[in-house]
Amino acid sequence: MGRDKAEIVYAQLPQWRAVEELLRPFCAEVFWSCTPTQQSQWGIGERAIIDAVAGHGPAGGLHAAFTSTLLQARNMTSPQSPQLHNSCAWLVVGCDYPLLQPRDLQSLLDARDLNADAVVFFDEQKNEIEPMIALWEPLAQAQFLAAFARGEFSPRRILRSCKLTMIQPSDQSILSNRNTP
């Protein structure tokens, strides 16, 4: 694309800020997968999640996020609450979906099924799931990390091996990402 798509302004805010505003009502905390330069320029401090393994695009960001979740959970887990990490799902939203609306995130949360590893949108036009607008439960995160360690870097392929709840978006256009200028 030739420039940072998180910095593109579609409405009044750079897309990274618009995604934060979109997620804030649904999440206890909002984090960004970003570079050290973005962390500094955006002023996001400890809410930045820097790729531990660079060069893998969205998979690197998911790896860093899911690894930090497991490490934080281990540090917080006490003998009285050994299963604390099991309640930490990640609502993942890529920075390049400017048509996404709050009702779309709510539909992911409403479809949450603790018997499923993840909740994803299904793109009927492409006959494909969308891993970058999804609710990743701890089991999906663990499967992702195991696959990543084996050299599999496609979030979509990894999620396909999980038990999924697939839902239709209210409008197919929300699944159109902005990978071209």
In helices, the fraction of residues equals 25-40%
Number of extended strands = 6
Oligomeric assembly: single chain
Shape descriptor:
globular
The count of domains is: 1
**Neighbour order of strands in the largest sheet:** 3-5-4-6
Strand content: 15-25%
What's the name of the CATH homologous superfamily?
Spore Coat Polysaccharide Biosynthesis Protein SpsA, Chain A
Mean pLDDT: 84
Radius of gyration: 16 Å
| CATH topology value | Spore Coat Polysaccharide Biosynthesis Protein SpsA, Chain A
Number of helices: 6
**Helix and strand composition category:** alpha/beta
Strand and helix layout:
Layout: H1 15-23, E1 32-34, H2 36-42, E2 48-50, H3 57-76, E3 90-93, H4 102-110, E4 118-123, E5 128-136, H5 138-149, H6 155-160, E6 164-167
Parallel strand pairs: 1-2, 4-6
Antiparallel strand pairs: 3-5, 4-5
